[in-house]
């Protein structure tokens, strides 16, 4: 069983690749970049603000950790 992260834009149903920019609202509806711009970053369903979905949260966290000289695991209190 493979769990693939497949996201489709709520507006145009276009497949959003994992490394592509995607925008989500508070209800976690996903939009592609062109639709987010077309909607002026407002969700067509709830009217909420669309924010950029982080692409690789773990990688980004590690990058910050490396830059400041400690590992991400060093953040754990045990
Ligand atoms: Zn779209
Ligand atoms: Zn919404």
Please provide a written account of the structure.
This is DUF1272 domain-containing protein. It comes from Paenibacillus agilis. InterPro entries: DUF1272. This protein is of the alpha+beta class and 78 residues long. The protein has one domain (7-68): Herpes Virus-1 (2-Layer Sandwich), CATH 3.30.40. Helix content is 22%, strand content 15%. It has helices at 33-38, 57-67, and strands at residues 7-8, 15-16, 22-24, 30-32, 51-52. The strands form two sheets. A three-stranded antiparallel beta sheet has the order 4-3-5. The chain has a two-stranded antiparallel ribbon with strand order 1-2. β3 and β4 form a beta hairpin. The longest helix has 11 residues, at 57-67. It starts with 6 loop residues before the first strand and ends in an 11-residue tail after the last helix. The model has no long low-confidence stretch (mean pLDDT 80). It binds zinc ion (ZN) (2 copies). One zinc ion binds at residues 25, 27, 29, 43, 45-46, 48.
- Which term fits the overall shape? globular
- In total, how many domains does the architecture comprise? 1
The largest pleated sheet is described as: 3 strands, antiparallel
Low-confidence stretches: none
Going by CATH, the architecture would be 2-Layer Sandwich
Rg over CA atoms, rounded to whole Å, is 16 Å
Largest sheet strand order? 4-3-5
Ligand species: zinc ion
CATH topology: Herpes Virus-1
Count every beta strand, where a strand is a DSSP E run of 2 or more residues.
Answer: 5
Distance between the terminal alpha carbons, to the nearest Å?
34 Å
The first-level CATH class is given as: Alpha Beta
How much beta, percentage-wise? 15-25%
Structural class: alpha+beta
Mean pLDDT: 80
Quaternary status:
single chain
Task: Please provide the ordered H/E string of secondary-structure elements.
Answer: EEEEHEH
| Helix fraction by DSSP (H/I, runs of at least 4) | 10-25%
Helical stretch tally = 2
Protein name: DUF1272 domain-containing protein
InterPro entries: DUF1272
Organism: Paenibacillus agilis
């Amino acid at each position: 069983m493979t769990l693939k992260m497949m996201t489709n834009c709520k507006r145009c149903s276009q497949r959003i690749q994992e490394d592509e920019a995607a925008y989500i609202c508070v209800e976690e509806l996903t939009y592609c970049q062109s639709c987010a711009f077309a909607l002026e970053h407002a969700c067509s369903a709830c009217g909420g603000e669309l924010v950029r979905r982080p692409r690789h949260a773990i990688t980004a966290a590690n990058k910050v950790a490396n830059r400041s000289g400690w590992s991400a695991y060093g953040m754990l209190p045990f």
